[in-house]
Structure formats: structure tokens, C-alpha cells
Amino acid sequence: MTFDRSFEASLVTEFARRLDGRAAQLWLIEDCFYTTAPPLASAALAVTNELTVGLGILPARARTAAITAMEIATLSSLAPGRVVGGIGHGVQSWMAQMGVRPASPLTALEEVLTTVRALLRGETVDVQGRYVTAEEVRLDTAPHPVPPVLAGVRGPKSMALAGRASDGVLLADCAGPSFLPAARAQAGDPPGFQLHVFAPLITAPTRREAYQKATGWLAEQLAAPTPSLRQMSFYAELVELAGSGGPEKLAEVPSQWWAELGAIGTLEDAAAHIEALEAAGATGVSLVPPPDPDLALAAIPDVLRLADRSV
Fold this sequence. Notes:
- The chain has helices at 12-19, 37-46, 65-78, 92-97, 105-120, 156-165, 180-186, 207-223, 227-230, 235-245, 255-261, 267-279, 293-308; strands spanning 2-3, 25-29, 52-56, 58-59, 83-88, 125-128, 133-137, 149-152, 168-171, 194-203, 263-265, 284-288.
- The protein is α/β, with parallel strands linked by helices.
- The chain has a single domain (2-205, 263-308), classed as TIM Barrel.
- The strands form two sheets. Strands 1, 2, 3, 4, 5, 8, 9, 10, 11 and 12 form a ten-stranded parallel sheet that branches. Strands 6-7 form a two-stranded antiparallel sheet.
């Protein structure tokens, strides 16, 4: 499950406790200028025994590479084997607001990923890059086991970068089953490469009710379409449908389209979407509830049923 960027920080322990021992992972969403993932992760790890916590996603240039490695290593020392790092480009307009927007986001991300992973492996790093400088830097205590670091990326060039410089990718915003083979191919399909998917969870007793609830979400996706959404076979028809009747018209989207877009429909439809993602090569799936804390807390029993495969 994911913990939305806008939720009160104090709620993270409630989510973590309810999920511990039942769901595998809780991903903490970091975006400017909301809460930051590392302190939320520390709180979540402190109140759980089994839950793995993911940092989703630390902007590459918001911290130095050494500090990012230190934060991931510190969390890993609190809960060995229960931390997954996540690093991405960051929204470039936000990076500009903070004065850290790189001229080449690809170069910046690759330098940061390469440096952070080397430090987590216990290596001494001496690099004079375009965006990363590290003079004989070595972590005092390297984490064991070494936590994986995923790249939060989307486009083909970034996916290829992730294949070279990370342990896997975290795919969000309409990354359906049909997109996963292409994503793995774009990354070069290195051994052990992880494909973790954030899937929207929008369910109701009937499909019609769920689809009506999901129209606002889908309209937002169409307003800023990701590469994975653009590659869907029905994308042009979807755009035409939205243009002909506005967001309300999207409730008429065929069920097979919703099945590709997310865990949307009945709870059985949500289970089928997860199974389809896994069959397509997903190594992990995190469900994204509505960005309302009350609705998200109310969704936890369904998340647990889906995690238990009891649907």
C-alpha cells in the first residue's frame, strides 16, 4: 500500500501497524513540498516487526548522494532487510524552485544512483562527476543486507538508465500489464531486475459505482499522460471519449480498459488486475488508495484481503 504525500505524518504509525504482518510493503510518497519519506519510514519501522518500508521517491538532487546513502543506511540499521530505497528525477519545476534543477536530469540521476548504491555496498567512493562530488567517501557502517534501490522513472531513456544504475524501477500512473514487458525490455532486462508497480485502488460493490468513482482520477491522468498511458492500445479512443463528453463520459469506458488502467471495479476485478500484473512480470504491486486519509484507512481491510489472496 502507499501512504499519500498529503496525509498527516502522525498517521503513518496507524497505517504501519494495521499492515504489519499482513501486507508486505508500505511505500511513503515524498513530493515537494509535503512530508519527507525518511522520518516517516523511521516511525513506521519503529512500530512494526515485519513490514518493509519503501522510500518513494527521493528526488536525486534534493540531497547530496552521500546524505541519501546515509539516510537509507541508517533506516536499514534500524530494521535490516526491511527498507527499499527509491530515487527519481523529481518534478523539474520543483527542483528549479529549490535551485537544484540539473541541466541534464538523466546524468544527475545516473550519477546519484551509482554513487548511492556503491556507498551502500560499503565501497569507498571517489568521484568528480557533473553533479556528484565525493572525495574518499565511505559509510562508517554499511547496511547488511544491502537494501535495493529502485528508480522512479517513466520514459525509455530513463528506463535504460535504470537498467544500468539501479536494482529496478517503480512504475506509477497507469502502468498496466501490457506495459511491463516493454518496460523490462527498455531497461535491458538485467538479472534480478525488479518491476514494482503502483496501482490505483478504486473499488465498489458494483463496477458501475467504481467506474463513476474513478472518472476524476482518469481525467487527471489524461490531463498529464505518462508514456505508459500513451502506449495503451485504446489511448486515442480514450482521449476522444473524454473530449466528447467530459469526465462524466469516462464512466462509459469499457471494463477491459479499466482492467488495464488499475485495480478498478469490484474487489474481484482488483484481484484480477494484480494477478495480471504479476503474470506480466511485476515483482511487487503497491495499491494506491484515494488521497483522503479516512477513505485510505477504510480501504485497508480490502488491501489486506488482496494481500492474503482471500478475494
